[in-house]
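Lab notes, practical 5.
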Amino acid sequence: MISEETEEVIAPVTQLVKQGTKVEEPQPEVKPVAKVETPKAQPKVELPQTGDVNENNLSLLGLLGLTGAGLLAVGRRKRQIK
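Output from the prediction step:
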């Protein structure tokens, strides 16, 4: 099912593929590099443990402040209703 037009296109393409389009450049000479030793890994240093102790002082102070504000709001509301 290949027509003559297709054969006309395929022939030059096949020739180009066989010929190749890449120009080979001379490769520079590779010289060996001196071997460098890597330093050995040092033992793992443990970081200081910070923030492990729960500080409940600020939490308690905040809870007391919210409770006081809530009680004041309820007291004012009762006065407005009377």
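Observations recorded by the TA: The two ends are 101 Å apart (CA to CA). The mean pLDDT is 77.
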